[in-house]
Write a structure and sequence with these properties.
about 280 residues, Helix Hairpins, SH3 type barrels, Alpha-Beta Plaits, 3 domains, about 20% strand, cell inner membrane, transport
Protein backbone atom coordinates (compact mmCIF):
# COMPACT_ATOMS: atom_id res chain seq x y z
CA UNK A 1 0.00 0.00 0.00
CA UNK A 2 2.85 2.36 0.81
CA UNK A 3 4.56 1.62 -2.52
CA UNK A 4 1.34 2.26 -4.40
CA UNK A 5 0.82 5.56 -2.59
CA UNK A 6 4.39 6.52 -3.25
CA UNK A 7 3.97 5.77 -6.97
CA UNK A 8 0.81 7.86 -7.12
CA UNK A 9 2.54 10.76 -5.41
CA UNK A 10 5.53 10.51 -7.72
CA UNK A 11 3.30 10.32 -10.80
CA UNK A 12 1.28 13.31 -9.62
CA UNK A 13 4.42 15.34 -8.98
CA UNK A 14 5.78 14.38 -12.38
CA UNK A 15 2.53 15.37 -14.07
CA UNK A 16 2.49 18.66 -12.19
CA UNK A 17 6.09 19.34 -13.10
CA UNK A 18 5.38 18.59 -16.77
CA UNK A 19 2.25 20.71 -16.68
CA UNK A 20 4.22 23.55 -15.09
CA UNK A 21 6.94 23.25 -17.72
CA UNK A 22 4.35 23.22 -20.51
CA UNK A 23 2.52 26.15 -18.94
CA UNK A 24 5.75 28.12 -18.72
CA UNK A 25 6.75 27.15 -22.25
CA UNK A 26 3.40 27.89 -23.87
CA UNK A 27 2.84 30.84 -21.59
CA UNK A 28 5.92 32.52 -22.98
CA UNK A 29 4.87 31.44 -26.48
CA UNK A 30 1.38 32.87 -25.90
CA UNK A 31 2.81 36.08 -24.51
CA UNK A 32 5.20 36.34 -27.46
CA UNK A 33 2.34 35.63 -29.88
CA UNK A 34 0.20 38.36 -28.32
CA UNK A 35 3.07 40.85 -28.45
CA UNK A 36 3.83 39.83 -32.05
CA UNK A 37 0.18 40.10 -33.02
CA UNK A 38 -0.29 43.55 -31.49
CA UNK A 39 3.05 44.81 -32.80
CA UNK A 40 2.43 43.37 -36.23
CA UNK A 41 -1.04 44.90 -36.36
CA UNK A 42 0.31 48.34 -35.45
CA UNK A 43 3.29 48.01 -37.79
CA UNK A 44 1.06 46.92 -40.68
CA UNK A 45 -1.09 50.01 -40.17
CA UNK A 46 1.94 52.32 -40.05
CA UNK A 47 3.52 50.78 -43.17
CA UNK A 48 0.27 50.81 -45.17
CA UNK A 49 -0.50 54.43 -44.27
CA UNK A 50 3.04 55.46 -45.17
CA UNK A 51 2.74 53.62 -48.48
CA UNK A 52 -0.56 55.42 -49.16
CA UNK A 53 1.07 58.81 -48.61
CA UNK A 54 3.95 57.93 -50.92
CA UNK A 55 1.74 56.46 -53.66
CA UNK A 56 -0.79 59.31 -53.53
CA UNK A 57 2.02 61.80 -54.23
CA UNK A 58 2.88 60.07 -57.51
CA UNK A 59 1.52 62.04 -60.41
CA UNK A 60 -1.26 60.26 -62.27
CA UNK A 61 -2.17 57.93 -59.38
CA UNK A 62 -5.83 58.26 -58.46
CA UNK A 63 -6.92 58.30 -54.79
CA UNK A 64 -9.01 55.17 -55.37
CA UNK A 65 -5.97 53.32 -56.68
CA UNK A 66 -3.81 54.54 -53.79
CA UNK A 67 -6.42 53.29 -51.30
CA UNK A 68 -6.58 49.95 -53.10
CA UNK A 69 -2.80 49.47 -52.87
CA UNK A 70 -2.92 50.50 -49.21
CA UNK A 71 -5.56 47.89 -48.40
CA UNK A 72 -3.74 45.16 -50.33
CA UNK A 73 -0.49 45.90 -48.50
CA UNK A 74 -2.25 46.17 -45.11
CA UNK A 75 -4.03 42.80 -45.34
CA UNK A 76 -1.00 41.08 -46.84
CA UNK A 77 1.06 42.16 -43.84
CA UNK A 78 -1.67 40.98 -41.46
CA UNK A 79 -1.70 37.55 -43.12
CA UNK A 80 2.08 37.39 -42.76
CA UNK A 81 1.78 38.32 -39.06
CA UNK A 82 -0.89 35.66 -38.51
CA UNK A 83 1.25 32.97 -40.14
CA UNK A 84 4.24 34.04 -38.01
CA UNK A 85 2.11 33.83 -34.84
CA UNK A 86 1.05 30.29 -35.72
CA UNK A 87 4.72 29.44 -36.18
CA UNK A 88 5.26 30.43 -32.56
CA UNK A 89 3.16 27.43 -31.52
CA UNK A 90 4.98 24.99 -33.76
CA UNK A 91 2.35 24.93 -36.50
CA UNK A 92 3.74 23.97 -39.92
CA UNK A 93 3.24 27.21 -41.80
CA UNK A 94 4.29 25.72 -45.15
CA UNK A 95 1.04 23.77 -45.33
CA UNK A 96 -0.93 26.91 -44.44
CA UNK A 97 0.78 28.89 -47.19
CA UNK A 98 0.03 26.10 -49.67
CA UNK A 99 -3.61 26.03 -48.55
CA UNK A 100 -3.87 29.81 -48.91
CA UNK A 101 -2.39 29.58 -52.38
CA UNK A 102 -4.87 26.91 -53.41
CA UNK A 103 -7.74 28.91 -51.93
CA UNK A 104 -6.58 32.03 -53.75
CA UNK A 105 -6.44 30.12 -57.03
CA UNK A 106 -9.95 28.74 -56.50
CA UNK A 107 -11.31 32.17 -55.60
CA UNK A 108 -9.55 33.68 -58.62
CA UNK A 109 -11.17 31.17 -60.96
CA UNK A 110 -14.57 31.70 -59.37
CA UNK A 111 -14.29 35.48 -59.58
CA UNK A 112 -12.59 35.65 -62.95
CA UNK A 113 -14.96 38.29 -64.33
CA UNK A 114 -14.68 40.41 -61.18
CA UNK A 115 -10.89 40.22 -61.23
CA UNK A 116 -10.92 41.31 -64.88
CA UNK A 117 -12.89 44.39 -63.86
CA UNK A 118 -10.42 45.11 -61.03
CA UNK A 119 -7.43 44.73 -63.37
CA UNK A 120 -9.14 46.97 -65.93
CA UNK A 121 -9.97 49.50 -63.21
CA UNK A 122 -6.34 49.63 -62.10
CA UNK A 123 -5.18 50.23 -65.68
CA UNK A 124 -7.81 52.93 -66.21
CA UNK A 125 -6.73 54.67 -63.01
CA UNK A 126 -3.05 54.47 -63.97
CA UNK A 127 -3.26 55.45 -67.66
CA UNK A 128 -6.20 57.86 -67.18
CA UNK A 129 -7.81 57.80 -70.65
CA UNK A 130 -10.63 59.78 -69.03
CA UNK A 131 -11.25 61.74 -65.85
CA UNK A 132 -14.25 62.73 -63.79
CA UNK A 133 -16.39 65.26 -65.66
CA UNK A 134 -15.18 64.33 -69.14
CA UNK A 135 -17.47 63.12 -71.91
CA UNK A 136 -16.43 59.82 -73.51
CA UNK A 137 -17.81 57.55 -76.19
CA UNK A 138 -17.14 53.85 -76.80
CA UNK A 139 -18.76 51.22 -78.98
CA UNK A 140 -20.98 50.28 -76.03
CA UNK A 141 -21.59 53.39 -73.91
CA UNK A 142 -21.22 57.15 -73.94
CA UNK A 143 -21.70 59.82 -71.31
CA UNK A 144 -20.07 62.04 -68.68
CA UNK A 145 -17.80 60.39 -66.10
CA UNK A 146 -19.06 60.66 -62.51
CA UNK A 147 -16.77 58.26 -60.65
CA UNK A 148 -14.07 55.74 -61.56
CA UNK A 149 -14.11 52.72 -59.26
CA UNK A 150 -12.14 49.49 -59.15
CA UNK A 151 -15.07 47.39 -60.36
CA UNK A 152 -17.12 49.77 -62.50
CA UNK A 153 -17.29 53.35 -63.74
CA UNK A 154 -20.32 55.50 -62.99
CA UNK A 155 -21.52 57.75 -65.82
CA UNK A 156 -24.32 60.18 -66.67
CA UNK A 157 -25.74 60.11 -70.18
CA UNK A 158 -26.40 63.28 -72.19
CA UNK A 159 -30.10 63.05 -71.34
CA UNK A 160 -29.45 62.75 -67.60
CA UNK A 161 -29.68 58.99 -67.08
CA UNK A 162 -27.47 57.09 -64.61
CA UNK A 163 -25.18 54.52 -66.22
CA UNK A 164 -22.77 52.04 -64.60
CA UNK A 165 -20.30 50.39 -66.96
CA UNK A 166 -18.04 47.46 -65.90
CA UNK A 167 -14.43 48.50 -66.26
CA UNK A 168 -13.61 45.56 -68.54
CA UNK A 169 -16.09 46.86 -71.15
CA UNK A 170 -14.32 50.23 -71.15
CA UNK A 171 -10.79 48.86 -71.17
CA UNK A 172 -11.30 46.39 -74.01
CA UNK A 173 -12.71 48.88 -76.51
CA UNK A 174 -11.46 52.09 -78.18
CA UNK A 175 -12.34 55.19 -76.15
CA UNK A 176 -13.12 58.55 -77.74
CA UNK A 177 -12.66 61.37 -75.23
CA UNK A 178 -14.61 64.44 -76.36
CA UNK A 179 -13.33 66.62 -73.51
CA UNK A 180 -9.62 65.92 -73.23
CA UNK A 181 -8.21 68.17 -75.99
CA UNK A 182 -8.52 71.97 -75.47
CA UNK A 183 -9.70 72.65 -79.04
CA UNK A 184 -12.02 70.78 -81.33
CA UNK A 185 -13.00 70.97 -85.00
CA UNK A 186 -16.53 71.38 -86.30
CA UNK A 187 -17.77 70.60 -89.79
CA UNK A 188 -20.97 71.94 -91.33
CA UNK A 189 -22.40 71.58 -94.82
CA UNK A 190 -24.74 74.07 -96.50
CA UNK A 191 -26.59 73.22 -99.71
CA UNK A 192 -27.38 76.31 -101.76
CA UNK A 193 -29.21 77.12 -104.95
CA UNK A 194 -27.04 76.64 -108.01
CA UNK A 195 -27.64 80.26 -109.09
CA UNK A 196 -26.30 81.74 -105.88
CA UNK A 197 -23.14 83.82 -105.87
CA UNK A 198 -20.68 81.32 -104.32
CA UNK A 199 -18.04 83.95 -103.59
CA UNK A 200 -20.57 86.16 -101.81
CA UNK A 201 -21.91 83.19 -99.81
CA UNK A 202 -18.38 82.12 -98.89
CA UNK A 203 -17.45 85.65 -97.74
CA UNK A 204 -20.67 85.95 -95.75
CA UNK A 205 -20.00 82.66 -93.93
CA UNK A 206 -16.40 83.61 -93.16
CA UNK A 207 -17.53 86.96 -91.74
CA UNK A 208 -19.94 85.15 -89.42
CA UNK A 209 -17.22 82.78 -88.26
CA UNK A 210 -14.58 85.46 -87.72
CA UNK A 211 -17.01 87.60 -85.73
CA UNK A 212 -17.36 84.89 -83.08
CA UNK A 213 -14.57 85.29 -80.51
CA UNK A 214 -14.90 81.66 -79.42
CA UNK A 215 -13.78 80.38 -82.82
CA UNK A 216 -10.01 79.92 -83.15
CA UNK A 217 -8.13 82.02 -85.65
CA UNK A 218 -5.36 79.43 -85.86
CA UNK A 219 -6.05 77.29 -87.73
CA UNK A 220 -8.28 79.72 -89.59
CA UNK A 221 -11.85 78.85 -90.57
CA UNK A 222 -12.34 77.37 -94.03
CA UNK A 223 -15.27 77.55 -96.43
CA UNK A 224 -14.95 75.71 -99.72
CA UNK A 225 -17.10 74.20 -102.44
CA UNK A 226 -17.44 70.55 -101.62
CA UNK A 227 -20.00 69.33 -104.11
CA UNK A 228 -21.64 70.69 -107.24
CA UNK A 229 -24.84 68.97 -108.33
CA UNK A 230 -27.30 69.79 -111.09
CA UNK A 231 -29.56 71.94 -108.92
CA UNK A 232 -27.43 72.81 -105.90
CA UNK A 233 -23.98 73.76 -104.66
CA UNK A 234 -22.72 72.40 -101.33
CA UNK A 235 -20.38 74.54 -99.25
CA UNK A 236 -18.33 72.78 -96.60
CA UNK A 237 -17.48 74.74 -93.44
CA UNK A 238 -14.65 73.89 -91.07
CA UNK A 239 -13.55 75.74 -87.96
CA UNK A 240 -11.93 75.07 -84.58
CA UNK A 241 -13.47 76.13 -81.29
CA UNK A 242 -12.68 75.76 -77.58
CA UNK A 243 -13.89 72.34 -76.45
CA UNK A 244 -15.76 73.65 -73.41
CA UNK A 245 -17.96 75.87 -75.60
CA UNK A 246 -17.99 73.68 -78.73
CA UNK A 247 -21.70 72.84 -78.61
CA UNK A 248 -22.80 76.42 -77.90
CA UNK A 249 -20.68 77.71 -80.77
CA UNK A 250 -22.17 75.14 -83.12
CA UNK A 251 -25.73 76.10 -82.22
CA UNK A 252 -25.03 79.83 -82.55
CA UNK A 253 -23.24 79.43 -85.87
CA UNK A 254 -26.07 77.35 -87.35
CA UNK A 255 -28.64 79.95 -86.23
CA UNK A 256 -26.64 82.85 -87.68
CA UNK A 257 -26.04 81.00 -90.94
CA UNK A 258 -29.71 80.20 -91.36
CA UNK A 259 -30.73 83.82 -90.70
CA UNK A 260 -28.08 85.42 -92.91
CA UNK A 261 -28.19 83.00 -95.82
CA UNK A 262 -31.97 83.30 -96.00
CA UNK A 263 -31.70 86.94 -97.06
CA UNK A 264 -32.69 87.81 -100.65
CA UNK A 265 -29.14 88.18 -101.97
CA UNK A 266 -28.24 84.63 -100.87
CA UNK A 267 -30.64 81.71 -101.04
CA UNK A 268 -30.00 78.71 -98.81
CA UNK A 269 -31.55 75.48 -100.01
CA UNK A 270 -31.17 72.90 -97.23
CA UNK A 271 -28.71 73.52 -94.38
CA UNK A 272 -27.26 70.41 -92.81
CA UNK A 273 -25.01 69.69 -89.87
CA UNK A 274 -22.20 67.20 -89.64
CA UNK A 275 -22.97 64.52 -87.11
CA UNK A 276 -21.44 65.29 -83.72
CA UNK A 277 -21.65 63.93 -80.16
CA UNK A 278 -24.49 64.69 -77.84
CA UNK A 279 -24.26 67.94 -75.88
Amino acid sequence: MDDQTTNIVVATRTALDQASALAVQYGFSLLGAIILLIGGWLLAGIISRSAYRVISRIRGIDETLASFFQNVLHYSLLILVFITVLGQFGVQTASIIAALGAAGLAIGLALQGTLQNIAAGIMLLILRPFRVGEYIETTNVKGYIKEIGLFATEMRTADGLYLMAPNSTLWNTPIINHSREPDRRQQLSVAMDEKVDIDLARKTILDILKADQRIKTTPSPKVFLDELAVDQAVLNIEYWAITSSWSDVRHDVVSKLKARLAEPDITIKSPTEATGPAD
